[in-house]
Design brief:
The protein is α/β, with parallel strands linked by helices. The protein has a domain of 169 residues: Rossmann fold (3-Layer(aba) Sandwich), CATH 3.40.50. Helix 5 links the parallel strand 4 and strand 5. The radius of gyration is 20 Å and the shape is globular.
Length: 361
């Protein structure tokens, strides 16, 4: 079946490759930090995509991966020319970590290392944490910041004394995903309550019925070390303990991505308010509605990077959900239709371009 998300994915992947090529080249050592501390498949998708992009560019495993205080200290034993890439799975400015955030620890401990914050959303809960971030980044002269939505881009440009660039989420480095065999569902909600201003999940389900999962609590046994990870590392000429751990982290991330893909595979339609729910739907070729309030960073991301895909429609409240669902394409007998008309998928047709956007230009 024709993959309706492929045009968008193939457009975004080179942007990620070109972004990391500014800092690493073939054979150069590098470090990836901030391995997801959650069981959320979307967070692990960001890690897996980043790992794949960096391996494509360098042709090697990382010199070090991690996220703990121990792994931060271990950076001093890695080659001095190894830049530090920070995975962007969580919001920058998260109130749960504050000044103990791994990004601040890295900037303070390694002032002479190149540090690259990969595409991320910025969301500070108060001005004090914003000011602390400004001072910490300003003191580090080799800090590079990448954002994945226009609001974050503008905030970073206005406040951070460092190079700022816009880029898509690193989960797009995974490539196309094949759905698993699963029991069919008409609709599936992949949603999490975020705040008072967000779309009410109960109201949405009253309009379009379907099971609900917020998918953030995957099974913890997926994070266990398998012997296969050690063998993979050796086959890729990764003989050090650090490189074997790096392969383990990549394999764990892949397992959680598969877990998320299995949850989505049976649904004909998906309704989500999560960024990585949207991204995995694109990778899996799943029609879906992105539900979020007006001015949301989710809709901002879609407008910036993925809005020309036929697979996604936006809704700002529960009452818009049914209309958005009716605009989605559907598959029948191996062909795609929209509004009961076959979609013209001739390969010679050019893909529509995004509207020029400050965060892309």
């Amino acid at each position: 079946m024709y993959h309706l998300g492929e045009v968008v994915i193939r457009r975004l992947q080179p942007k990620l490759v070109n972004s990391v090529r500014k800092f690493v080249s073939k054979g150069q050592p590098y470090i990836i930090m901030d391995f997801p501390s959650t069981y959320d498949p979307g967070h692990h998708a960001s890690w897996l995509g980043l790992a794949k992009v960096l391996q494509e560019v360098t042709g090697r495993l990382p010199a070090l991966t991690g996220g703990s205080l121990q792994s931060i200290n271990a950076i001093k034993y890695t080659p001095g020319d190894a830049p530090i890439f920070i995975c962007g799975w969580a919001d920058f400015g998260d109130a749960g970590t504050g000044r103990d955030d791994i990004r601040y620890r890295l900037a303070c401990k390694y002032p002479d290392r190149t540090i690259i914050q990969m595409p991320q959303t910025i969301d500070f809960p108060n001005e004090a944490l914003m000011e602390y971030a400004k001072r910490t980044i300003g003191r580090h002269r080799k800090f590079f910041f990448m954002t994945r939505d226009q609001q974050s881009f503008e905030l970073a440009k206005a406040n951070f004394d460092c190079d700022v660039e816009a880029g898509p989420d690193t989960a797009f480095g995974i490539d196309l995903l094949k759905p698993f065999e699963a029991d069919p569902l008409r609709a599936l909600y992949v949603m999490q309550p975020f705040g008072e201003d967000d779309v009410d999940i109960a109201d949405a389900r009253a309009i379009v019925d379907g099971p609900l999962t917020n998918w953030i609590n995957g099974p913890d046994n997926l994070s266990r070390l398998h012997k296969s990870s050690v063998l993979k590392a050796v086959m890729r000429r990764g003989f050090s303990r650090s490189q074997m751990v790096a392969q383990h982290h990549e394999d764990v991330a892949a397992r959680y991505v598969d877990y998320g893909a299995k949850m989505l595979s049976g649904a004909q339609r998906i309704i989500t308010n999560r960024l990585h729910g949207h991204i995995l739907c694109l990778l899996l070729n799943k029609p879906h509605v992105a539900v979020a309030r007006n001015g949301s960073k989710l809709h901002d991301f879609i407008s910036s990077w993925t809005g020309d895909s036929l697979l996604v429609e936006k809704a700002t409240n529960a009452s818009e959900l049914l209309a958005a669902m009716s605009r989605l394409p559907y598959e029948m007998n191996g062909a795609w239709y929209k509004s009961s008309r076959p979609i013209d998928l001739r390969p010679g047709l050019p893909a529509p371009d995004l509207v020029p956007h400050p965060s892309i230009v």
